[in-house]
Amino acid sequence: MTSEALQTFEHAIQDAIDLCNHFDALNTHPPPPEIEVLKRASLVMAFTALETYFEDRLREAAKQVTQGSADDLPLAAFYEESLETDLKTFHTPSTQRVSFMFKKYVGVDVTEGWSWNQCDPETARMRLALLVKKRGEITHRSSRPLLNGAPPTPHAITRDELRRAIFFIQQLAQTTDAYLKDNLDHS
């Protein structure tokens, strides 16, 4: 059974997929410059879904950790309040932040479970770092194509890169969920 966090993620990631599909529907060769924003927005939405997944999954795991600690209610309340305080500064789900938060609050480095088909944890960590950088560039710097006769600028993200990024983000959420299920239920 999947977590509520993963179910919410799977609903939210659909926004990123829909934006990518809208880009495809409007795309001609060459693509009109004004539709490039759909790809950039799609990547930002995918990261928003992932960030929310990690936050929600941490909360679920924290409840699992404190379950049955009614005898020590003040300690459980402190633990959950500390998590909420830390989540206020979580923001971009970098490898370091994800690893730190899950180790701190549930004693599990979820990045160790980031493995699927031809992707091992180290490759997944590096790929996430590159995507976080790309997302930062897209979010904090306008990469609107210049018009006024200026030479065309390279797209911030190609359609194929975006599709691979969305798939990668989906795999991170799914493998994190499975890894936590195995490592929290059997500990």
Describe this structure in words.
It is a single chain. The protein is mainly alpha-helical and 187 residues long. The chain has one domain (4-185). 68% of the residues lie in helices and 0% in strands. The chain is elongated, with a radius of gyration of 19 Å.
How would you summarize what this structure contains?
The chain is mainly alpha-helical and 187 residues long. The chain is 68% helix and 0% strand.
Q: What is the number of beta strands?
A: 0
Q: Rg from C-alpha positions?
A: 19 Å
Strand content: under 5%
- Overall mean pLDDT score? 89
Low-confidence parts lasting 5 or more residues at pLDDT below 50?
Answer: none
Largest sheet: none
Helix content: 55-70%
What is the domain tally?
Answer: 1
Write the layout of secondary structure elements.
Elements: H1 4-26, H2 36-66, H3 73-87, H4 95-106, H5 121-140, H6 159-185
Key descriptive features of the protein:
mainly alpha, 6 helices, elongated, 187 residues, 68% helix, single chain
